[in-house]
Predict the 3D structure of the following.
Amino acid sequence: MVNDTPTLHCVKCAQPSLLKQGEKAFRCSLCGFVYFHNVAAAVSGVIVCDQQMLLVQRAQRPSKGKLDFPGGFVDYNESNEQALTRELLEELQLPIDNMRYLFSYPNRYLYQDVLYYTLDSFFEIHLTTKPALVLQQDEVSRYLWLDMSTVNANELAFASGQNALRAYLRGNNYDRRGRMTKK
């Protein structure tokens, strides 16, 4: 958490008595409860169709207005795959039935002065045609189909997405500038 003052409230006794103890632990000075601010799981879809990649523009903070892969946080009792399926339906009205795990990257997500460490898992989804998408306007302000040869990783909102885009392009024979290197 960014806020390290003793005004943090204990989740067990509800008193303003939570003190930082170590990198991710907070101990209550009154009841002794230890809260661990663990990593949150998130998922993203690397959606491609005809050498183009689907990116969305964020409508919410953090990084409002920046590009991102569609996706979101994993809910309780969900697998990564279930979470991505749900998120794509919620944000884009995009039903999917086939995805392939690519890789994961750690990330930092500052939301309302609380720093969350996340582990972002990326899944590849190939579409044969570009669907008509219906946006969840409070999450996504617009979507873009961008040529994979012109996508710039530095335009993405988060370091994990930037790293994922670079790795994906390298794995699909594009160089750091998005140019095709071999067939």
User: Anything to note?
Assistant: The chain has two domains: 1-38, 43-151.
